[in-house]
Amino acid sequence: MPKSASNQKTLDQFMSCWEGLEDPRNGNAALHDFYELLVIAPCAVLCGGQGAVDMALFAKAMEPFLRGFLGLNNRAAQPRYLQPSVPRP
Fold it and tell me: Nearest 5°: CA angle at 84, between 78 and 89?
């Protein structure tokens, strides 16, 4: 899905909903763009994700799709601590 002016406008409108929301992360936790996380997190939850590990796995699996409309300047999140019930990618 190539980036388009329409996609960018929609993403800008979504981000404007969160304007003024302070990013609570610090240090290495702020590696990824806050607004991009605000797009990825609900998508992961809607697909059955239940936490940070699931969000990272979702972002990794959907990286080519997400790059169609998000910058993803840093690579998609790599889960550092996998739960025993979660298979390694």
Answer: 40
User: In what helix (H) or strand (E) does residue 35 lie, and over which residues does it extend?
Assistant: helix 34-46
Longest dimension (CA), the chain: 43
pLDDT digits (tens, 9 = 90+) for 19-74: 888 888 887 777 778 888 888 899 999 999 998 889 889 988 988 888 887 877 76
Element (DSSP H or E) covering residue 56: helix 52-61
Q: How far apart are CA 84 and CA 1, in angstroms?
A: 34
The per-residue pLDDT for range 49-61, each reduced to its tens digit, is 998 889 889 988 9
Q: CB-based burial of residue 15 (10 Å sphere; 0-12 exposed, 13-18 middle, 19+ buried)? A: middle
DSSP one-letter code for 79: P
CB 32 within 8 A of CB 77: yes
